[in-house]
Amino acid sequence: MEPEMSRSKAAARIRAAAVAEFAEHGYGGTTTRQIAARLDLSPAAMYPHYRSKEELLFAISYEGHRETQEVLAESDLPGEQPVVRLRSLIAAFTRWQAAHHALAKVVQYELGALTPEHYLTVVEVRRSITALFRSVVEKGITTGDFDSPDAEGVTLALMSLCVDVCRWFPAGAYTDPDAVATLYADLATRLVGAEPATLG
């Protein structure tokens, strides 16, 4: 069941305030009163838009996953060699995690707070994202461009690598999402064991 995503400015402001609170204090450590206070509203003023804190989290999580899915669709290069396609996807995925690190942190690490029904809805989108990456890895293995015996394991490693960016970004010398995107595209190339000939 997809959430009925309100496009009103008020609902968008509530989601933004909730992302900031959830990212800073965690879902469990945040109350609707705190979210409302950030907007100088009463908790009752949030109710017409979101009936519960969990419903608000669901809207944020679903929206974040769908936005990621759209970014990846725009960045995919189906006609290119597997390594070129993988680098483009990894760079886009990593860049989104860094550029939207507060939202990504909520999206990636608060799934367990969703109701079973809402969790399954979000996980369906999440699985489609993983399936996209796995299809590219499998293609590279089939063509011989990638030197890896385990498409599933490599895919999980790639996804974990990118998803974790939101936990630490920004840090040290890495304050530019584009720089992290380039770094992770290089790391992904090495992780799949891409043949040197495919990198030219």
TrEMBL record:
Q: Where is the signal peptide?
A: none
Give me the positions annotated for DNA binding. 31-50
Residue stretches making up the HTH tetR-type domain = 8-68
Q: Name one Pfam family in it.
A: TetR_N
InterPro entries linked? Homeodomain-like_sf, HTH-type_TetR-like_transc_reg, HTH_TetR, KstR2_TetR_C, Tet_transcr_reg_TetR-rel_C_sf
Instruction: List the keywords (alphabetical).
Output: DNA-binding
Single GO molecular-function term?
transcription cis-regulatory region binding
PANTHER family named in the record? HTH-TYPE TRANSCRIPTIONAL REGULATOR RUTR, HTH-TYPE TRANSCRIPTIONAL REPRESSOR BDCR
What is the name of this protein? Transcriptional regulator
Q: Which organism is it from?
A: Rhodococcus rhodnii LMG 5362
